[in-house]
C-alpha cells in the first residue's frame, strides 16, 4: 500500500521518461541491468528484518527480495508516480501487497518516520538509480543516516567499463544519455568517503569486466 506522500519538485521528468517504458521495463532491462540478483542475494536480510529500496521502480527487485527473504518487511520509495503505480500492481499480482509498503518521496530528503512510521532499516538498497539521480551522493548519505545499527546499504549500478572494448563503452554511454543515465565512475571512491564519515566499512565488487559495480556500506 502507498504511504504518505512527501513534496516532490522534480519527479515529472521521471514520469515522462517512464510513462510508457514502465510497461516493457522489466522485459528489456534484464539484458543490461546486470548484477541486480547478485546484489539481492548478498543482502542477507536477518529474519524479520526491514528492507527499503530507494528508486523501487516497477517493484521487480522487491518481489525478488521477498522470494529470497520471505520473512522480511519491505518498503519502497520512488520519485515517479507512474513507476509506483506499476510497482503496486506487480505486488498485487505477486500476492505480497500486504507485506510491502510504497511511498512517493525524494530520496535526497525523505522522512521514513512520516512515510512508514519507522526511523531506520536493516537493509537499504539502490539498484541502477544512482546513475539517474542528480543528487546521488546526497542520497547515499541520506540512506546511510537511516540505517539501523549493523545495517547495510547495497548499491548496484553501471561500472566504469574499463576492461571492456573502448567502442563498447562509448556506444553504451551514448545510448544511456537518451534515458538520462550517467554512470558514476567515482562510485567506489564516494562510498569509501561516506563510510569513513559514518565510521562504517565499505566493500566493492566489480562484475562482468567492470560492466556492473556493487558497493556495500556496513555500519558497525
Automatic annotation (TrEMBL):
SUPFAM superfamilies: S-adenosyl-L-methionine-dependent methyltransferases. It holds the Pfam family Methyltransf_25. The keyword Nucleus does not apply. InterPro entries: Methyltransf_25, SAM-dependent_MTases_sf. Keywords: Methyltransferase, Transferase. This is SAM-dependent methyltransferase. Residues 51-151 form the Methyltransferase domain. GO terms for molecular function: methyltransferase activity. One of its GO terms (biological process) is methylation. CDD domains: AdoMet_MTases.
